[in-house]
Every structure is written in structure tokens, then in C-alpha cells.
Amino acid sequence: MAKAAKSQFVCQSCGAVSSRWSGKCVSCGDWNTIVEEAAEVAPPGSGLARASKGRVLKLESLAGVSKEAPRFSTGMPELDRVTGGGIVPGSVLLIAGEPGIGKSTLLLQLAAALGRAGRRAIYFSGEEAAAQVRLRAARLGLGDAPVALAAETSLTNILATLAEEKRADLVVIDSIQTLWSDALEAAPGSVSQVRAATQSLVRYAKSAGCALLLVGHVTKDGQIAGPKAVEHVVDTVLSFEGDRGHTYRILRATKNRFGATDEIGVFEMAETGLREVANPSELFLGERDANAPGTAVFAGMEGTRPILVEMQALVAPSGLGVPRRAVVGWEQSRLAMLIAVLEARCGVSFAHHDVYLNVAGGLRIVEPAADLAAAAALLASLANRTLSPKLIHFGEISLSGAVRASPHMGLRLKEAAKLGFTEAVIPAGGEIPKEFNGKGAKLALRRISHLKDLAAGLGPCD
Q1: Which helix (H) or strand (E) holds 193?
Q2: What is the C-alpha to C-alpha distance for residues 124 and 128, in angstroms, rounded to an integer?
Q3: Is 355 helix (H, G, I), strand (E, B) or coil?
Q4: DSSP states along 76-90
Q5: Whole-angstrom distance, CA of residue 437 vs CA of residue 444
Q6: Distance CA 157, CA 162 (A)
Q7: What is the largest distance, in Å, between two alpha-carbon atoms of the chain?
Q8: Which candidate among 26, 152, 251, 345 keeps its CA 20 to 30 Å from the CA of 158?
Q9: What is the rounded distance in angstroms from the CA atom of residue 101 to the CA atom of residue 343?
Q10: Is this model's pTM higher than 0.85 or not?
Q11: What is the reported pLDDT for 227?
Q12: Residues 259-293: pLDDT tens digits?
């Protein structure tokens, strides 16, 4: 009599395995995420089902001379910037984003650009039929691009096709959650299937030396769906961010073994697909209302790129017992801390006012240097005053109210001067280029050491 296959209970959020079902996962705390799956069995011929002696490895010295990883350009400068200068052959990239944000459009444009450059690209679609992909390509003007295309969800068929065909420079899998392996008795998209498909494709990419680009879904919290093991095993994790109410899209690297993780690429969604934005500062400030009270321009940094963006604040009298605090594009906790510092250190009260803060253009800011610009916008809105349209702010604010120096001050000031700004409120500490010192400087600098110096000219201050 055949022995029944063992089953296990796997959390679809974190991948934790338990021997019995429960309503709540003890690992991540999520409810109703545990699903019964068949236990993974080692595939025939893998050598995992029996003990093997193994072979002795040749150890190398750490002090050896290593060469920089070879790369090839994607033909898209913004994507090259995010990946660290291009795609490394044999690397595995995972790109994730909300549905409809433009992931498939970006990858189709990437595959077409490589195909037109003489490289071989293969596009496997598990969510759309081949005819649907061709319709999108025709709409984007890519119908004549030499890209190999197949609509398939079977992992076995995809690996067999890759082994039979000529080696490709880039393989796109859209998406990893749609693949399934007949060796596992689990539904497509489950933790077991996603983990098995990723590991099999990564092994092929490393052995064949071709770049592999996987598309991943995200949860309602914005996290990449599936087990965390997927993010650990890939070389680069790219997050495609944006708001459907805006045409701008931000491509951000959250993990990169071959480059920095603080670079971003800026795209604009147009009728003909995603268009690269070479100068994001002009884009984010293009529709700015300079005469509106409560707006301040922040000179920020995204990796090595300076970006100027408008921060908008609205402070209005509240009729509620607990005033509202809402923020878009910035951290809610950071806004709460900034309001507390203004009240405790500067005597500016927001106790009877609703506070709304917005970063224009759909950009999300994470660096602390935005504190000073946010404070200027809040104070200007509270006093119903308009700041100079040629004025920028940047600087981190501590709990004591002190304004701390920010990195890359010179790059921020140079970007502001290039776009026609003439004044800047910056921290008292920190080095700046000589061209911004003394008479004839490109910007009139106002260096402050405490938040009181800023509040004194914009609102009540003790």
C-alpha cells in the first residue's frame, strides 16, 4: 500500500511551518493565513533524498585580486542608475509593486530595448495571453522589437524551454506567483510553490550566466508577497512606487549586491508607456503655486541625485476634541515629533488646529533633512504667510530643537542654484563649497542653529 503523503501547515504571510492548523500564526501574528500543504519532497536525482559524501572544495585567499562585475546597459539610463550601472550577467532581480503601477510595461520596454540593441531577451507571461502582450507592445510602439515571447505558468516547461533554446541575456518571469511545479501538491502562489520556483530559476540563471528578472506581487501593506526567503536569495530587490492619482513612478532599490541601495529612478506614465525623467526637480516643481501660503521647497537627496520637491502644509482651526493629523509622502511619526518640538521648544501651539502635510508629486521622503522644510511649511500655514518662491530649506531637527547638519550640502545648494533659487535656510553646522561663501555667492544663505530662529520670523515664539 502506498504511503500517504505527509502534510504541513504553512503561513502564507511569513512562511512559518507548523504541525497543526490554527487561526493565528504564532510567528507573524496574522489571522487566517495558515494553509495545509503537502510536505516538500526532494526531486528525483537531486541527491537530497540520500546521504552523499560530497567533494572537497578548493579554498581561495581573501586577499586575492578581484575584478569588478561585468555589466551590460539596459538602454534606460534611469534603470541603469538604480541597478548600479547596468545589469550583471547571472544576477537575479526581483521587482515588486502594486497592481497597475506599470511593472509589466517597464519590463516589456526593457526587453524591447535589449532586443533592439542586439541582445536576446525572453519574456514569459503567466498572467496574460501572448495576444494580450502583443497588443500592449503595439500600443507602446514595440511591436517590431525582436523579443521572444511565451505564455506559460508551468515551471517544468519554462526550464525545459530555457535549456533547449539559445542562451538569453535576459529572462523575464511575469510573475513568480503564477508559476507552479508538478512536484509539489500546493496551489500556485503558495509559499511552497513560490520558494521552489524561485530557487529553481536562480540555479538556472547562475549556471547559464543569464540575467533573470522576476515580477512579485505585494500585500495590502506594501510588502512583497510570499516568503522572505525569496528576497534573500535574489541579488537585487526593486520597488516600483507611485500613486495612481499621479503620473510619476519611482523605482527604488531596497537591496543590491552589485550597487548602492539609495538610488532612485524617476519615470512618467504616458500614453506610449513609461518615459524617463532626466531632471526630476523641474518635474516636481513644474505645477507649483508660489503664492500659496504654507508651502516650502525642500532640497533633498536620493542617492547621489539632488531633488527639489515642494512640501505643502495646511493648518486649520479644528472643531474636534482631538485635532486631525494627516500626512502623505512623509512619516506620520515624524510629523507628530515635529509638532511636539514646535510646541515644547518654540511655544507654537497646534492644540486647536487640524494639521495636514503633503509632499507634492507623489514622492515619498524618508530622509531626516526634510524636517526644516516641513517646519517652515507648518509655521507659514499657521501664520497664513507666503514664503519666498526662490527659497529652499533643508536640515534635521532634534528633540531639543537644534538644527543639525545634513550630508551632501554642496550638491543640494548647487541643484537649487541651477534651478534659479536665490535663498536658502540651512543648518549652521556643516561644510559648504567656497562658491557659496562671501560676496557674490550664488545663494544668500541663512544659517540657523535652533528651530527658534526659524519660528521667530514666521510665528509666535517664546
Answers
A1: helix 191-208
A2: 9
A3: strand
A4: -HHHHHHHTSSBPTT
A5: 9
A6: 9
A7: 93
A8: 251
A9: 40
A10: no
A11: 65
A12: 888 788 889 888 888 999 888 887 788 778 878 89
Please enumerate in sequence order all residues whose Cβ is within 8 A of that of 30, keeping only pairs 6 or more positions apart, or say none. Answer: 11, 13, 14, 24
What's the Rg (C-alpha) of the chain?
Answer: 26
CB atoms within 10 A of CB 333: 9
How many Å apart are CA 402 and CA 110, to the nearest integer?
46
Query: Which distant-in-sequence residues (6+ apart) come within 8 Å of 125 by Cβ?
Result: 104, 132, 133, 149, 150, 151, 152, 174
Q: How many residues does the chain have?
A: 462
Q: Where are the beta strands (DSSP E) in 129-181?
A: 148-151, 170-174
Please give the Cα distance from 134 to 146 (Å, whole number).
12
**Hey, is 91 helix, strand or coil?**
coil
Give the mean model confidence (pLDDT) for residues 346-361. Answer: 92
User: Between vectors from CA 192 to CA 42 and to CA 165, what angle results, nearest 5°?
Assistant: 70
- Cα distances (angstroms) measured from residue 108 to each of 13, 132, 209, 314: 29, 12, 21, 41
pLDDT digits (tens, 9 = 90+) for 222-250: 677 666 778 888 999 999 887 776 788 88
